[in-house]
Amino acid sequence: MERRELIQWLVATAGLRALDSLAPADLLALGREVHRRAPPRTPDTAHVTRTISVAAERILPGSTEANVSAFIEKMLADWYTPEERERLLTGLRDLDTRCQAIAHRDFVDCAESDQVVVLTTLDNDVSRADARNHWFAMLKYLTIYGWCTSEIGMRALRLYPLPMRYDGCAPV
C-alpha cells in the first residue's frame, strides 16, 4: 500500500461526524486556518505535545515536519468539546500505561519498535462499530487531516498552490 492509498483509507474510515457536513473547500479552509494559529499552552503541554508528535510521526511519517502536533492541539482547544478533548488526553495517558507494561517507560521514551507495537495493537483493537468514538481513531484522523492540510502535505499531494481561485469579499 502506498502513502496516498493509506491516507485515503484512513480519512475514509476515521472521519468524524462533526466534519462530515463541511464541503471539501470548507474543510480545506478550516485545516489551513488551524495551521495559521498558535496552540494554547497548558501545564502538561510539553509531555502531551511530545506524545502527540511521536504518535503522529509513527502513524504518518512526515507529520513532525508538517507540525501536525500543533495542529492537533489547536483543534482540541478550539473545535472539540471538553469531553472529546478529555477522551483523547485519557487515551494518550493510556499509551504511557501500555508502554510502561511492556518497556517500563513512557511512550515517548520507548524504542520506536515498541511504540509501533503499541499503536498497531490499538489500531487492531478499535472495532469498526466504535471507531468514530475511540480516541485512537480521533488521533489518526487528526494526524491525516493535519498533514493533508499542511503545506508539506499539500505539496506531496500536488495540491499546492491551490488549483482554484479565491475571491474574498467578492460582490454577489
Tag the structure with descriptive keywords.
single chain, mainly alpha, globular
Notes on the protein architecture:
- This protein has 172 residues and is mostly helical.
- The chain has one domain (3-14, 45-156).
- It contains nine helices and no strands.
- The longest helix is centred in the middle third of the chain and has 22 residues, at 82-103.
- The radius of gyration is 16 Å and the shape is globular.
- The mean pLDDT is 82.
Q: How many runs of DSSP E, i.e. beta strands?
A: 0
Strand and helix order: HHHHHHHHH
Q: Which whole number gives the mean pLDDT?
A: 82
Question: Main sheet, how many strands, which sense, barrel?
Answer: none
Distance between the termini: 45 Å
Radius of gyration: 16 Å
The helix-and-strand class reads: mainly alpha
Shape: globular
Give a brief description.
By secondary structure, the chain is mainly alpha-helical.
List the helices and strands and how they pair.
Elements lengths: L2 H11 L3 H4 L3 H13 L8 H15 L8 H11 L3 H22 L8 H14 L9 H14 L2 H6 L16
